Amino acid sequence: MVKEAKLYDIFELEVSVEPYNFKLTAQAYNFSWWYNGRSLIIPLDNVLVKIKEHDKENTLVAEIYSHNNVEYNLDVIVEETAWTLGLHENLAEFYDKANRDPLLGKAAEKLRGYHVRTTSLWNALLIGVCQQNASFRQGWRMLYEIYRRLGQHVMIPGYGETLIPPQPKTIVEKGIEPLIEARTGYRAQTIYRIARFLEETPSLPREPWKLKQFLLEVKGIGEYTVRLSLVLSKRYYEEPPIDRWLKEIIIQVYGVDKSNVEEYYRRIWGKWAGLAALLTTIALDAETLRKALARIREGRTVPEEKDKPTPLTLWKYF
DNA sequence: TGCCAGGCGGGGT
DNA sequence: ACCCCGCATGGC
Predict the structure, then answer these.
(1) Among A70, A114, A226, A233, which residue's CB has the most CB atoms within a 10 Å radius?
(2) What is the pLDDT of residues A93-121, one digit of tens each?
(3) Protein A6 CA to nucleic acid C9 C1', in Å?
(4) Does domain A121-234 have CATH number 3.60.21.10?
C-alpha cells in the first residue's frame, strides 16, 4: 500500500552563485525516484521537497510534501534545501582551474555549474560501500535494490512514485537478509555494521578529519569509502577518494609515478581534489578502466549519449 | 570459463 | 611501507 503525500508549503530559492547548473546538479548520480528530467525530489528528515526551475532566471521553486502529519520549521527546511543543492557554494575558482586541466578541461566547459548534491552521511556511506570492488553499474544496481526493498514508497501528486530511503534503524531491525537479497554480497556485513554504529553513536564530531577517524573504526570502511562519503555528505574535498580506477588514470594522464599519485593530485587540485575526482567519473561516463583510458587517448573526455546508465543518465534506467 | 571490477582487512616481509 | 590473498557478485 503506497501512501500519497500532500502539499504543505511552497517557497522560492534564489540561485546567487555563478556558475550554477540546476539540471546537472539534480540529475547526476540520481535515481528516478528523485529526478524525472524536470523536478528534483530531496528527501529531508520529515518531509519531501520537490524542486524545479522557475520561469524567472536564477530562481528555483520548491514545494514541501509529507505523507503524514508532521511539524516542521520552514526556515530549517529552506536552509537544508539550499545546503543540499550547494546554493551558497562558489565554484568559480574550481571551474577556472579545471578549464586548464588536460583531463577535465573539456568536461569543465560542458559540466560547468555542476555542484555536489549532498546526501546524508549514512546514504553517502552506503554509496561508498556499494562501489567497493565492483563496476559503477553493479554498484548502483546494488544501491537501487537496497532502496527498493527497504525504503518507503510514497506517491507525490504531479510527480509519481518517490522513495524515502531507509534509515540505519531500519537496517538494524531487518537484519542482513534483505541486504543479501539485494545482491550486495560480502558488503552486507559492512552495511549492517555501519547502521549499528550510527544507531549506537549519539553524536558524531563536526570536523571532517575527526569524523573520518571515527568512521574508520568501522570494519569495512577504508580510506576510499570514508573520503567519498565526506565528499558526498559534507563537500569535504581536501582528501580525494582515489581508487584503482582514478589512480591508473592519473598515472597515465599526468605521467606520475604510482608512488606519488595522491601527493601529485592534491598538489594540482588543492582544496578541490575531491570534487575533481568526482567530476572525472562523470566526464568519462564511469566507464570501466580499459574503456576510460581508451576514451582519454581519443580525447573523448566529455559525457556521451549511451544506451546504458551513466552518472548523468542513471535516473532514466533505475 | 576463469578471470576481473572505483576496496578492505589480515597476514606476511 | 610495501606485497599478497580471499572475499560475493555479475559481466565478459
Answers:
(1) A114
(2) 999 999 999 999 999 999 999 999 999 99
(3) 40
(4) no
